[in-house]
């Protein structure tokens, strides 16, 4: 089973954004050494506690500091941008780092309404136009400039020998069917969805329309997981992430992900305690044996080709240790 990494570049308490971004480079290097298949970095805008609004910038740095692991955006939020510019950026990355670049595409705003308005005009209209934007982007990525389509005969230079591999990321049937219609690989964000992902993925598979000979549907399932040497330690480490989710909801996340001690001291009311137990159900928490079992169960349930793991901890050491333990348990 393939395993990969999704990174949101979270900022811990007493840490700068610069330190968080360099931790992302460090995580990609660690993932490469543990033999993970790919590393993707997310795009967020003006969200306190998350350091990366520009995956394309980080991918240049990460690509230069790794050698073999596939790297990509998880996701580039297409409604904010012109497809042509996105194609130019990822063609450049694919030229610099051959056979290593993934172009993950999403339709979410990635931030507040104010940030969305600052980024782009008529965002909702551009979301509505997403199917056309995806087709236009793919025409540039696959250099269909000689065809007579209405996007014109412009090339998104430089043209790499091996273009970036496009993925559509989502949590809805709409995104799954859009991926299927365009012969794209699909990544389902199970860690942030309450929807029936099993049915969504099945409909993606059933509706898949290959655009090239031999092309098959491909699915990544993205999950949240924290692994430690013991179950007790994993539960303790996870408390930081869980409490941080309440701090963000309450507008109190500017101080970053709390330490384990800060998380333990955080005063939760009864409603929040109940909510915390519900949130735990969306996170795989445990020792290596427990985490492996749960990942294998999800892999089988969702019929995914690959599992992508997002791990949020206060300590970079704990985060890398979590990925290391999982890799060893699976014998990567």
Automatic annotation (TrEMBL):
Entry-linked Pfam families: Bac_luciferase (PF00296)
Domain of life: Bacteria
Keyword Lipoprotein listed: no
The UniProt record lists the keyword Oxidoreductase: yes
Organism the protein comes from: Bacillus salitolerans
GO MF term (any one): oxidoreductase activity
InterPro entries attached to this UniProt entry: Bact_Lucif_Oxidored, CmoO-like, Luciferase-like_dom, Luciferase-like_sf
Enzyme nomenclature, EC number: 1.-.-.-
CDD domains: Flavin_utilizing_monoxygenases (cd00347)
Start and end residues of each Luciferase-like domain: 1-301
Protein name per UniProt: LLM class flavin-dependent oxidoreductase
Similarity comment: To bacterial alkanal monooxygenase alpha and beta chains.
UniProt-listed SUPFAM superfamilies: Bacterial luciferase-like (SSF51679)
Keywords of this entry: Oxidoreductase
